[in-house]
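Help wanted!
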Amino acid sequence: MRKEARLIRWIFYIVVVAALFFLGFIIGWFAKPTEPNTANNNVSSKNLREFLDEMQSDQIREHLRKFTQLPHLAGTEQNLKYAEQIKKEWQEFGLDSVEMVPYDVLLSYPNKSQPNYISIVDHLGNEVFNTSLAEPIPDGYENISDIVPPYSAFSAKGQPEGDLVYVNYGRTEDFFQLQREMGINVTGKIVIVRYGKIFRGNKVKNAMLAGAQGIIMFSDPADYWAADVQPYPDGWNLPGGGAQRGNVLNLNGAGDPLTPGYPAKEYTYRFGLEDGVGLPKIPVHPIGFHDAIHLLKNMGGEIPPNNWKGALNVSYRIGPGFTNDFKSQKVRMNIHTNNQVTRIYNVIGRIRGAQEPDRYVILGGHRDAWVFGGIDPMSGAAVVHEIVRSAGKLLSKGWRPRRTIIFASWDAEEFGLLGSTEWAEDNAKLLQERAVAYINADSSIEGMYTLRVDCTPSLHTLVYNITKQIASPEDGEEEVSLYESWHKKDNWTDDRDAPRISKLGSGSDFEAYFIRLGIAAGRARYTKNKKTERYSSYPVYHSVYETFEIVEKFYDPSFRRLWAVAQVRGGLIFQLADSPLLPLDANEYADSLRKYTQSIKQLAQRHQDKMEIYKVSFDSLLSAVQNFTVAARDFHERLKTHNREDSLQVRIVNDQLMYLERAFIDPLGLPGRPFYRHVIFAPSSHNKYAGESFPGIYDALFDIENSADPEKSWEEVKRQISIAAFTVHAAAMTLTPPA
Amino acid sequence: MRKEARLIRWIFYIVVVAALFFLGFIIGWFAKPTEPNTANNNVSSKNLREFLDEMQSDQIREHLRKFTQLPHLAGTEQNLKYAEQIKKEWQEFGLDSVEMVPYDVLLSYPNKSQPNYISIVDHLGNEVFNTSLAEPIPDGYENISDIVPPYSAFSAKGQPEGDLVYVNYGRTEDFFQLQREMGINVTGKIVIVRYGKIFRGNKVKNAMLAGAQGIIMFSDPADYWAADVQPYPDGWNLPGGGAQRGNVLNLNGAGDPLTPGYPAKEYTYRFGLEDGVGLPKIPVHPIGFHDAIHLLKNMGGEIPPNNWKGALNVSYRIGPGFTNDFKSQKVRMNIHTNNQVTRIYNVIGRIRGAQEPDRYVILGGHRDAWVFGGIDPMSGAAVVHEIVRSAGKLLSKGWRPRRTIIFASWDAEEFGLLGSTEWAEDNAKLLQERAVAYINADSSIEGMYTLRVDCTPSLHTLVYNITKQIASPEDGEEEVSLYESWHKKDNWTDDRDAPRISKLGSGSDFEAYFIRLGIAAGRARYTKNKKTERYSSYPVYHSVYETFEIVEKFYDPSFRRLWAVAQVRGGLIFQLADSPLLPLDANEYADSLRKYTQSIKQLAQRHQDKMEIYKVSFDSLLSAVQNFTVAARDFHERLKTHNREDSLQVRIVNDQLMYLERAFIDPLGLPGRPFYRHVIFAPSSHNKYAGESFPGIYDALFDIENSADPEKSWEEVKRQISIAAFTVHAAAMTLTPPA
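Answered by r_m:
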């Protein structure tokens, strides 16, 4: 029995050992996470907080001061120096890599030995009045050389002489009114228009189409003067001697005019100037309102309607030409600006993603400035600099984002978004396959009122979430979030009780990323009160008066507004790069599509009778949008029960979210604009600044009013509706389960 | 002490328990795989074997018999019936889903009450000879109705009358020779050309450009007759009464002529016929050689060079018109063919991928046939059917591929690849983002000699690997692999000691997938001995004599050749869908690019003098290819040490492999051909069947010979070289580490 007992005891021991082992094994098995890199949301939100808190307003002030000391026009030595300095500092901040990426693009400069100006000449050809050759230099900058005088970049050369015709803002509708209602033909005339309302390149194109032999643009105080504000340096209004520089291209997203579609590298084939994209064929020149008075005051012809009158003490007569007393006088433009292929430099910095290095979140803004760039673009570049510094700080503490972050300091934005577009062309395949989002960082401030955000609908929710985690920069709002402050000042009343977010138009570097490649994009800045401040842009826009001091003295003395903008832009890229599940919202896209469909339909219904005659129906588009709405809702419904532990399955739904914006790209482009390919958002053909929804349909409807062949125009409307319906259906498909 | 001993014993127990638990935990921890779905290569290759072995030649025979009983032209009741039958059987075989996908596309049929024919008319207008209205019906099919007579689909209607001019094969170079060397103008004439060498649509385009008012195409025995073979039914040669049907479009990849770029759905906007893509403006008609003799025998004019002479007992005089004796006779075409928007049906079946449902491997081939489709396409469709049956069998045993497999039975291929192109347009976004590869399954056999494979270079290695696992179908080669048999018969001597693989051209349904969307693609079939058998295609191509019996009696009595083709096609999709690491080879792409660059450079160097004058250099392209070669080598080098246990990291490199082909797509398309977008592979503009490498450069060089402005043409060559260099550089970038 003793042996038996021993045996039993041994069996008992073995069973216990085995059971314990088994217990341990089981616990070990289940204790181990399937997914080694499951992100911990608390860690992630702690990191976000730390990232935002690291940013400092004083640092932004110093970045801005440092990079606005000297003029740094694209293609100049000084802009290369700033690029090198940014590269060096980004490296010091701790980015994984920083490189200079050059392109050789067509730029345009005044001829230094033959200044541009406009004259009034008498019957003997004597110049009885000449416009100024430069703006009065602001205090403290007297010894600065290389301040480029106001000019229209890419103007044709020439010295046309003729009678002036005043055409208000030079919009399509202004020229229609001039030609059809007022019966004035501008063929062979020189057109004078005021700046504002639309992109200046569109004014130039309209003048060319109307047959003008030259065009002058002036800043009218009605459009560039805020009430009760002094001109710079005593306030932030545009002095009478100031004028707005700017390019006058009609690129429609082509980038470098000589290499459309391809990056402007050494080996790249270049078209001749005569085949370049968007180059105006007539001379163009900008002037300030002091000079404008001289050109306008003696004009003859009819008195225009009130909405054609600006705020100068002249009658705004239309012309052509001067009144009887001055009939023999003509206007002569003297333009000697040169086009020149010039090397530009983007600075590209990277933080390698830890888990998904092949997913890119991009923060890009330009560095080149017309002169000092105090607002445009350095108030944006200083903010990017601070975001890079802050990200570097986190990196040094061991953090690394899930996805790759790319920081870009673009060159030659002012010459047609060239640096950003060439880089997009150079990297198109990688971006198309890998880019999650592009956040733009041009000027951070254009007013002192509240936040302004323009972005794709799928970013709405993230923008709201981020702004709730940022403090209002306004005095007396210390306890208020940026979201609340913004909401109070700019509620989206028509549609919803939330801060207003607008559509993206164009005119800054997001264009190639959003409108050509279909990458989710957004921008944020501080802005004016649109309801009460009616001037265009901000008064000193593109003048020599955009200095560090105008920001420090007037726009943001505490630099808390720029700091808030830094946190918004930085917070967006942080969340896009680090959230395990991409923070993109397809339901918001659906809501927006419904709204846009209603409004384009309403626009068409102004011609209800014609719609019936030509059998134009929006049913297919409405049904596609309904289909998309259901697909988006179901997609987010499924996400709620989705397995977030399996990194491959998370990647699959993230890919659906990432590629949603891509689904709206039509590879064939919009009619006549091969590089504008976004079916939902693009600028109207009549104003690059204004983002239209369903731009193909919008443009076709716009053309109806002007059509010689209404049947053909309505056919185009129908074709565009069909393309929009197809595109929305295709986008809905991308959200359904993949097999 | 007793207490102490007990304590010690307890401590001992606890330590033992803890140690055991810990041991168990540790073993449990490490025993559990990190990656729940790590594919076991042995399991995978066992599954492949089982999949291949499941396929049976007798089954293929029965599938072919079943689907060749009745004519099933696209758009007919019978072709819909076969679609429904295929759908039903695929469901029974066990696919996860099968759906019918309809489109409404432009088709073209003869007018049943007004037959098409060609007459010789005398001076009174009497028809002294008429071509036959139909082919003699083969035995056993006498009671079949709905056999469409030979016609040229999409021919313009009309009854042009005039003198004949014989222009050999109707190639660009034939028309050049006619016009420049022989001095003959075909304006207002009716052109007669022999079939062969190039796609018939290119012949028609050339005739239109030359000003002809009609074109007749005939099958010359020199091109459609194999030596020592009887005409059908006693052999597989084309009888003299047989003629080749076919469409005469110049679509260049547009799909449905009325809805280029968009799927032809109910709501889709359709162009009017006058704006349709690629529709010929002149009447076109095909005839057999019995009829051709009557038209040719009395022709006058010069005797042509020997390479213009076919094998008929006529002198092949060029014309214009008949000899003196018959001078008053003219030729009249009587063409009443109608274009008609018609519903077509693709059948789409799916097996959902287990781990990556959002990765698609596609096996597609058409179902519509000109008549019975004994060879074209049902010898291909029967093979697809057997592959689906075999896959279903594996599914029923619990297997499921890693990725999604899509099977497609396309409609209306014969009318311009319409079914496959419309579906590609409909699903373009999904395919661009998710498609791994497209394997085409048109006719499985066109000869009795050996295997023929045309595919993208990245598939070379997989093709070799698969064919090594398949037995040769030839008698007496029971122990020989298909690879060895093929290698022996068609060695790639010039380049390497391996079986020859050719470039993809066009002319079948892979076109939209490969050339428009940039999806890796390939095709495989059994072929003739190209060195000894000089006829075009196979003699009965597109005639009523393509029956089940011609395959069973002559081409593949044992059905082992079709069986081998089934295993090749099936093996390719199996490995593409199931290998954890995608079996695509970037090094092979690099090797091919080097070869293509050398040969296009040699082509250009025929004009060495001009290259110097116009400063044309291939250096940028050579350097890009070198860059690509290094990137590919490094990529595969890194793969060797890549962590294959981490499914996310495997997905990342697989994405690089999948998107490699996409990198060669230029969204702007080739010049004048927006839907041909592959910079490396596309048909020449002069022959849709021939795949050229660097087609942009090739076409530009081709134009040099014919250029009125050589400087401009050389500029285009330079531009195309620059585009090619950029594209290859961009493709290299996609292979470098992603951040």
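OP: Thanks! One thing I noticed: Chain B touches chain A through 71 residues (CB under 8 Å).
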